Amino acid sequence: MGRPRTNDAAVRERLVACATEMFATRPQESVTVRALATAAGTSTAAVYTLFEGKDGLIREVRDRAVAGLFQDLTAVPGSDAALDDLYALAVAYRRWGREHRYLYTVLFGGAQSFVPSARVGDRDPVRPLVAAIDRAVADRILVGDTTLVAVSLWVALHGLVTLELAGGLGGDAAETAFRSTIDAVLRGWATPAAFPGLRRTDSGAANS
Predict the structure, then answer these.
(1) What is the model's pTM?
(2) What's the Cα-to-Cα distance from 32 to each of 27, 58, 70, rounded to whole Å?
(3) H-only helix segments in the chain
(4) Can you spell out the DSSP letters for 26-75?
(5) Dihedral angle of Cα 157, 159, 163, 164, to the nearest 10 degrees
(6) Contact at 8 Å (CB) between 113 and 59?
(7) How does 134-160 read in b/e, with b if 16+ C-beta sit within 10 Å?
(8) What is the DSSP letter of 76?
(9) What are the residues whose beta carbons fall under 8 Å from the beta carbon of 177, sequence distance 6 or more?
(10) pLDDT digits (tens, 9 = 90+) for 34-90
(11) Residue 107 confidence (pLDDT)
C-alpha cells in the first residue's frame, strides 16, 4: 500500500482557514510556520510542500481575499444609471466585508494588505467601483478625477466597515451612517445639476 496523503486538499484548506484568522488577529511576525501547522493539525513540512513557506501561504490568503471581493462586486447587476450602480456596489462591498471579516482584515489591514493605488492586475477588487465612477463622470453626474473620487469613496466605505467589524457601529446607527456617509461623499463630487438628486431617503439601498 502507498503512503497516505498528508498534504492533500483538506490540509491545504485547513491551513488557509487557520492562516486567514491568524493573520487577521495577530501581528504577522508572531504567526510562525509552526504555529500555523499546529493550528491546522498538520506538520510544518506541509506548509513548505503546499505553499513553499509562510510567504506563499500569505499570498494565497491575500489572493483569495482579492478574488472574493472582486467576484462579489462584479456580480452586482449593472443598470443604465451609474449612480444607482455605485450605491449597489457600496452595499455589496459592505456586505462582503461583514460576511468575511477575517479576509477583509487581511486584505485591508493585515498581512500584505492591499493598497488601492497598487497594481494588482485586471482583478483589482475595487475595479467595478472605479468603472461605475467613470460612467458617472462621463454622464456629468460626478465631476473630478476618477481616482480621487474612488479613493474618497473607498475611504468612507472602509471606515464604515471597519467600525462595524470592531463593534463600534451597529443596528440602526450603522444603517443611518452608511446611507448618510455615502450620500455625503457622492454629493461632494456631484455636478451642480446632479446635486439635488443625490439626496437618497430610501433605506433599501443600505440593507444587506
Answers:
(1) 0.84
(2) 10, 11, 29
(3) 9-25, 33-40, 44-51, 54-74, 82-99, 101-108, 127-138, 146-165, 171-188
(4) S-GGG--HHHHHHHHTS-HHHHHHHHSSHHHHHHHHHHHHHHHHHHHHHT
(5) 10
(6) no
(7) ebbbeeebbeeebeebbebbbebbbeb
(8) S
(9) 160, 169
(10) 999 999 999 999 999 999 999 899 889 988 998 999 999 999 998 888 888 999 999
(11) 86
Phi, psi of 142 (to 5 degrees): -115, 155
- The rounded distance, in Å, linking the Cα atoms of 112 and 7 is 25
Instruction: Report yes or no: 73 and 130 within 8 Å, Cβ to Cβ.
Output: no
Res 29: pLDDT: 83
How many other CB atoms sit within 10 Å of the CB of residue 173? Answer: 12
Q: How far is CA 48 from CA 7, 36, 57, 207, in A?
A: 10, 11, 9, 43
How crowded is residue 1: how many other Cβ atoms within 10 Å of its Cβ?
Answer: 3
CA distance 51 to 59: 9
Give burial (CB, 10 Å; 0-12/13-18/19+) of 175: middle
Residue 92, pLDDT score:
96
Parts of the chain with a pLDDT under 50: 1-4, 117-120, 201-208
Q: What is the pLDDT of residue 111?
A: 53
Quote the pLDDT of residue 22.
94
The predicted pLDDT at position 175 comes to 92
